[in-house]
Design brief:
By secondary structure, this protein is an alpha/beta fold. It folds into three domains: 282 residues, Rossmann fold, CATH 3.40.50.150; 87 residues, no CATH class; 88 residues, no CATH class. 31% of the residues lie in helices and 19% in strands. It is built from 15 helices and 21 strands. The strands form six sheets. The protein has a nine-stranded mixed sheet, sandwiched between helices. A four-stranded antiparallel sheet has the order 8-9-13-12. Strand 8 and strand 9 form a beta hairpin. The longest helix has 20 residues. It is elongated, with a radius of gyration of 31 Å. The termini are far apart. It binds S-adenosylmethionine. S-adenosylmethionine binds next to strand 16.
Length: 503
Amino acid sequence: MTTLNVQNRTLFHGDNLPFLRGINSGTIHLIATDPPFNKGRDFHATPDSLAAGARFEDRWSWDRDVHQDWIDAIQDDWPAVWQVIEAARAAAGEDMAAFLCWLGVRLLEMHRVLREDGSLYLHCDPTASHYLKALLDAIFGRAQFRNEITWQRTESHNTAERYGNITDILLYYAKSEDETWNGGFHDYEGSKYSEQQLKRFRHVDPDGRRYRLENLTAPRPDSDSGKFEWRGTRPGPTRGWGYRLEQLEQWWQEGRIHLKKDGTPRTDGLKMYLEDSEGKPLQNLWTDVSRIPNTSDERTGYPTQKPLALYERIIKASSNEGDFVLDPFCGCATTIVAAERLERRWIGMDIWDKAHDTVIERLQSEGLAAPDGDTAGRLLTFGRVGYSTVAPVRTDEGETAAPILKTKQKIAEPPGSKMSRAEMVDFLIDQNGMVCRGCDRQFDDPLYLELDHNTPRSDGGLNHISNRLLLCGPCNRIKSNTLTLSGLRRENAKRGRMAKKGE
Ligand SMILES: C[S@@+](CC[C@H](N)C(=O)[O-])C[C@H]1O[C@@H](n2cnc3c(N)ncnc32)[C@H](O)[C@@H]1O
């Protein structure tokens, strides 16, 4: 088994892709992360807050946000992922497809770095949750889907034109059947119980145990049964004690009887302790974690900050003490503070330049970090918070952690050694003739045909021939912009129509 090549409590500052690519495969226990949602707008921090000045853009385009080599890699190695991106492009447009490609290349790395017992929770909202679920099915395998959790993030969000959107989605996937799962329980105010349970058990013993009161009497309108005086209390005229005297005495001795001010028992005074009742297992609808109140100390002012209670719940359910929790989009450090509180180890990443200071300030305000006068100026109780802008170097010799998935999706290669660019062209001509796949024109000289914009990775890369195309020069140039064969054909058809009209 490979070991993790990043130290506990490291905050990476910058684009997370190179950092993720530098982590050894199969080394992370839990990824709980909240990337941009593709909302098509910018987010700004509250002025005068801890996060003042922070902003991030949540708009996506092929030109600005997506690199050609990501497209090549996905098309070569992850055809199902590419098909999901294509489907999103057809259904929702270019921005959605660009967003999925940008996030998809990172989710592939997240999948790779997870251990076999690891899990991913991806926070999103209905803007893209349906496409992201398809993307994660293609990356993790559909059998690894565990839950789509709906979190009610606010009480109301009124809009005139439609129902108010008040929920976020968390997509939960496991790397394999062996995932860590401690069970999900309600955990109101740090306990395993729900808010309703805590409200019902509203009395508290001097030793801190919560209890509710149960009636000790029962209706006895027509009988004398139980109608005796016990320790100075007699049930009402139509009622009798519901238990035998010995039982009542036993509870008295055990201190289970709630007394009136005069020291006599209350007729509804049987103490039922919360600790004797089961925690309430959680379902996939979470309505009991409320938004962070404006006046709460937890609030940093960071746009899109999530409540600690939400991430503590996830971390408790899907990791154990000492496990490594990774958040590649950690923002103002919610996952990190939650992990530290629960004695997990963590790695955080964010492109925001104040992420490191914010991690430290939040940990300090929680009593989990203290100033110590070293050069970084701070020391955690258990060790320093590391800071890096440099990607880690893998020590697992680039081993892939996703052999199963790769085997499932591998495209059949022609037998023989890897092909050079020229060999690929010859192979495609043998298969299809000297035809441009973009405009269907037939040529009589192979000189007019080029391999499509995807660089064949004949020099050390995979040379999947099955998704390579032979194109004429003009089509290849159009395809560099439209990126797909269907896009190229649509573009050619449009140009054909325009040419006919003489435009
Ligand atoms: C929705 S916010 C996360 C909020 C976080 N859950 C919290 O409670 O503070 C998304 C974060 O992704 C970060 N981000 C966007 N693009 C990034 C990239 N390429 N690499 C690393 N972080 C990125 C943004 O700076 C932002 O902090």
